[in-house]
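Appendix B. Raw example, untouched.
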Amino acid sequence: MHAAAQFELIIAMFLVIVGLHYIARRLSLPPAAALIVGGGAVAFIPGLPAVAIDPELVLVLFLPLDMSALIF
């Protein structure tokens, strides 16, 4: 999978996460429940390529986001 296609797939998954979070709030459900159901649904989409992210990239991107949640 080319880097541009992988980037587009990750952005699309991020948008699905935001949409699921919005739907969960509208239905007064816990966002975690909507994300679990949505993740299960995405897992059954045929032909969806596996996404492999470099562990160093995950460390650089998501650890600061997690730490900012603890600070605020």
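End of appendix B.
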